[in-house]
Amino acid sequence: MLAVTGLGLGACTGDDGVPPPVSSTVSVASTPSPPSTSVATTSAAPAPPGTRLVSDNDRKVSFALPQDFTVADLSVILADPAKKREMTRVFTQLGMPADTVDRLAGQVSFAAFATPTPLGNDTVSITKQSLPRFVTPQEIADQLETFPDIQMGDTRTVPTSLGEAQRTSFSYTLQGTTLSGEFLQVPTPLGLTQVNVTSPGTQTASLLADTMLATWTAS
């Protein structure tokens, strides 16, 4: 078994407006899934109006995010004791080990968040470690079962310019706010990677995932 840790930034913010993280660790058997008879690909779309291209230099990919998103340096955020305490508090609320926050910067290759609103932030993160195969919907559900009021949505296969991707939707409740999420498994030049998208409300995460997948390309 290979333990793969994915870190999506939580959509509820602390008092300083910095989004605390939500952690998910999925155990993935290293035996690959049977190969597909064909690889679904499509040309990457240009960045839509109101968005800009950003890059994950570790995973060698580029994609579009809304203009108001800020790309975060997690090592700087975690160096602030107050922000680290807030992250630890949220981990504990979600039933996660408090020491998970200490591993956060080493496990995430890219993180970005939108301008805070009264309900929180839209957030995106990408993990550094490659997945040996597509994680099944049941494996995702088993990991997220500790989240408050977790509701799993559908899983869909979608084409990207780098090959076939999968997306699984979910929602949960944190501090009285309903959050939506998309668990993306997307090919990169370095292998399959996990992308986490979270948002307050019910629609934005899906729209963010739509834009990212449509514009996903090698950088």
Portion of residues in helices? Answer: 10-25%
CATH superfamily annotation = Mog1/PsbP, alpha/beta/alpha sandwich
Q: How does CATH name the architecture? A: 3-Layer(aba) Sandwich
Radius of gyration: 16 Å
The percent range for strand residues is 35-45%
Instruction: Decide which structural class fits the backbone.
Output: alpha+beta
Topology as a string of helices (H) and strands (E): EEEEEHHHEEHEEEEHE
Query: What strand order characterises the main sheet?
Result: 5-6-7-11-10-9-8
Work out the count of structural domains.
Answer: 1
CATH class: Alpha Beta
Q: Report the principal-axis shape.
A: globular
* Mean pLDDT level: 78
- Poorly predicted spans: 1-25, 30-38
Q: For the record, give the distance between the C-alpha atoms at the N and C termini, rounded to a whole number.
A: 31 Å
Total of helices: 5
CATH topology tier name:
Protein Transport Mog1p, Chain A
Report on the biggest sheet: 7 strands, antiparallel
Number of strands: 12
